[in-house]
Amino acid sequence: MSAGEFELINHYFKTAPDALTPATVLLGIGDDAALLQPDASQALVVAADTLVSGVHFPADAPAQEVGQRALRVNLSDMAAMGAVPHWFTLALTLPKHWCDDTRRQWVAEFSRGLKACAEQYQCHLVGGDTTSGPLSISIQMLGQVPANAALRRDGASVDDFVLVTHTLGDSAAALALLNNHVAAADHACTEADRQYLQGRYYRPEPRIQQGIVLRDIASSAQDISDGLLADLGHLCAASDVAAEIDLATLPQSAALQKFAPQQALRWALTGGDDYELVFTVAEHKMPLLAMAQAQGNIHASVIGRIVSGAGVHCELDGAPFSVDTTGYRHF
Description:
Blueprint: H1 5-13, E1 25-27, E2 35-36, E3 42-52, H2 63-80, E4 84-94, H3 100-120, E5 124-132, E6 136-146, E7 161-165, H4 170-178, H5 191-202, H6 208-214, E8 220-223, H7 228-239, E9 242-246, H8 254-259, H9 264-270, E10 277-281, H10 286-294, E11 300-307, E12 311-316, E13 319-321
Parallel strand pairs: 4-5, 9-12
Antiparallel strand pairs: 1-2, 3-6, 4-6, 7-10, 7-11, 8-10, 9-11, 12-13
């Protein structure tokens, strides 16, 4: 029997109505469209991302990890806006040449990873589509944020501090390892370090709670998907300002520094796929940030300041530092 569209949907993605289905989902999977009931006091936040095999994840990547990654990178867009995720749709394109057993096995593993992530972040699959073609996953994420409280790219001002959450460069290192661009045996990191790096690639941590904290603190924010240099550049362009950053302050994990000390700085600056937040804070708001840090509600490092002008300017050891690439390019 062919594993048709409705069979796949009903078996792997549709769940019976139960206590886990939020009251905001009036009608979920199974009809032409979902019916949702947003909170009238909140702004609706909508984001979408497509992941293509061989471009956004290795062609031989474990399907369960692809499911985790696909949802997490979309959740990161919610974090960048200070929003709480609630619902998502899934458009799944599966290779036509796959036999039924291969298709079922891949979808079973993919849905397992997707569901685990959805449960962790309490967001609900409400619809989508399946078709055949090159393996790809498109997710549309919907969330909510209090009216006029959303974080945006266009709020940075001269003299604001520039900060990033947690560490940078881990995901780029993991991808180099997964693609056999570096030989792990030639590096000082342990198996635990390698597992940590790969976890940062397949299961990036969307900074949802940190985004919520930053609603009352940050003047602008952006998640880091294409690399710090590129994404901070987007923020600066939207705010009509420039940024000066000190490369010596870029936060890097111990695993990254052991794995590739010569490449760590470049990966932290331009590697991409970190899904951390880069944000700006006015000087008078820095005590609020320090309090949030002390309470364990956010972990962030100051890496520079906003200045007049355009672009992102880097320095290392007090001297200008030129970079030959800005980050990932989609085209």
